[in-house]
Amino acid sequence: MEETQKEIYEHEKEEYERKMKERKEHPDVKVICATEREPHGKTVKQIFEKLPERLPEEKSGETMSKEKMRTRLKTQEGQKIYSKRKTTVEPVFGIIKRVMGFRQFLMRGLENIGIEWDLVTISYNVSRMYALKNLSPTKM
């Protein structure tokens, strides 16, 4: 029996969703990620709200959930870890999108997209090294 593209897609989608529901966190890794979009700035109540200092104790091998992530984010330690994303990864994607103008892939297929992304990241890294070395084109 030959399956149509749509049936194959539906089957893969169902399989992916099942795996996501069963996904367990690695015991050595603490994931901290946004559960929803948050507005900029804080209200007076949020500023003076006393957050717990430490992340709550969790059983290893538990499945991930939004509620579990919200609990992690509502601690001082979770906020401290989450705030690091602004200084590590987020600006890089902003530069790639805004400055370099890379907004969508031109090729199809996962392998081709991987190659295209490699080229984008190589060009970002080379331009970043150039800027950090403070080289001028005449010195090369």
Task: State the helicity in percent bands.
Answer: 40-55%
| N-to-C span | 62 Å
SSE arrangement, N to C: HHHHHH
Computed over alpha carbons, the radius of gyration is 21 Å
How does the overall form come out from the CA principal axes? Answer: flat
In total, the number of strands is: 0
Largest sheet composition: none
Ranges where pLDDT stays below 50 over 5 or more residues in a row are none
- Give the count of helical stretches: 6
Strand content: under 5%
Short account of what is shown:
The chain has 140 residues and is an all-alpha fold. Helices cover 51% and strands 0% of the residues.
Summarize the helices and strands and which ones pair or pack.
Layout: H1 5-22, H2 44-48, H3 66-73, H4 76-83, H5 90-98, H6 110-133
Could you explain the architecture of this structure?
- By secondary structure, the chain is mainly α.
- Helix content is 51%, strand content 0%.
- It has helices at residues 5-22, 44-48, 66-73, 76-83, 90-98, 110-133.
- The relative contact order is 0.08.
